[in-house]
Amino acid sequence: MKIMTVFGTRPEGIKMAPIVKELEKRKNIESIVCVTAQHREMLDPVLNLFNIKPDYDLNIFKPGQTLTEITTRALQGLEEVILKEKPDVLLVQGDTTTVFAGALAAFYHRVKIGHVEAGLRSGNLYSPYPEEANRKLAGILSDFHFAPTESNRQNLLKEDYPDEKIFITGNTVIDALKYVVKEDYIFELDLLNNLDYKNKRVILVTSHRSENIGKPMENIFTAIKDIVEEYKDVEVVFPMHLNPKVRDIANRVLGSNNRIHLIEPLDYEPMANLMSKVHLIVTDSGGLQEEGPTFGKPVLVVREETERPEGIEAGTAKLVGTKYENLYNELNLLLSNESEYNKMANAVNPYGDGKASEKIVDILVNSEE
């Protein structure tokens, strides 16, 4: 059985890597890895970390690329690989432009499609943009819907996908975390080694969503700044996104406090190990909503809606929006009320047991029997 995995961004690489490693173990499977390199600089460290050497690297990244350019370059490159390799199944993960282009290229050549992390929905086609559209478009074309949770399965059933094509697997991000987090991990950045994680309450912040740039991001950062000024034992680490607009707001609002550390983006391994050490997380990222609960870290989600409601329902995360007072009040509550903090920290992680990759590959193998 020939299975081709396609990915192009750092989050996809992280979540697809455990599947690639599982495919490599199976004697009855020929594994083909194709990367689009939609995000070149951020993808390469993931490939190195998991020791994955792609069979095909389309290297489509160009500075200032538009969604149309990413889609057309990926589609043309993938078509050539599919025609050459003729895979039985093509696997895509998540909701990027690479995912949509990969599913479409496979569909055009009548190759079966497996959608890893299927069934996530925010309910707003333009938020997150373009991810919500990409995941829906990929779903329409897919033969196997690998849903991380029951909630994701229900989303697919509501859209009339056949139940026999939906499989609840857990999320492969949990598999990946098991691979990289170490008790004695040493960071390359000395600042992170020197933080007092035991006696100080370190807050990890990430914010980069295009819909948050402007006033919403100013609200988020101002609330964080005010909390740091109020609580002398609180420090903040913010690995800043490369987007200059994000950096401008961060430097303007957060740059003057010596307990707020604005640092360069972290690769996956140091980011995962940092997550395991901090007190709590404030983020508009999708992945951190899944990863934080693995370590028992409360996650405050600074978005107006989320396609990951399981964490909210389980109590590991809270959707606080982007208004100043909402974030300030929730941070204040978690820092001043130990029982509220413990309630979130001890909630059960809804995203799986770290065996999602094994389940996915088993399903694919069994489908051929």
Automatic annotation (TrEMBL):
<keyword id="KW-0413">Isomerase</keyword>
<protein>
    <recommendedName>
        <fullName>UDP-N-acetylglucosamine 2-epimerase (non-hydrolyzing)</fullName>
        <ecNumber>5.1.3.14</ecNumber>
    </recommendedName>
</protein>
<dbReference type="Pfam" id="PF02350">
    <property type="entry name" value="Epimerase_2"/>
</dbReference>
<feature type="domain" description="UDP-N-acetylglucosamine 2-epimerase">
    <location>
        <begin position="21"/>
        <end position="364"/>
    </location>
</feature>
<dbReference type="InterPro" id="IPR029767">
    <property type="entry name" value="WecB-like"/>
</dbReference>
<dbReference type="GO" id="GO:0008761">
    <property type="term" value="F:UDP-N-acetylglucosamine 2-epimerase activity"/>
</dbReference>
<comment type="similarity">
    <text>Belongs to the UDP-N-acetylglucosamine 2-epimerase family.</text>
</comment>
<dbReference type="InterPro" id="IPR003331">
    <property type="entry name" value="UDP_GlcNAc_Epimerase_2_dom"/>
</dbReference>
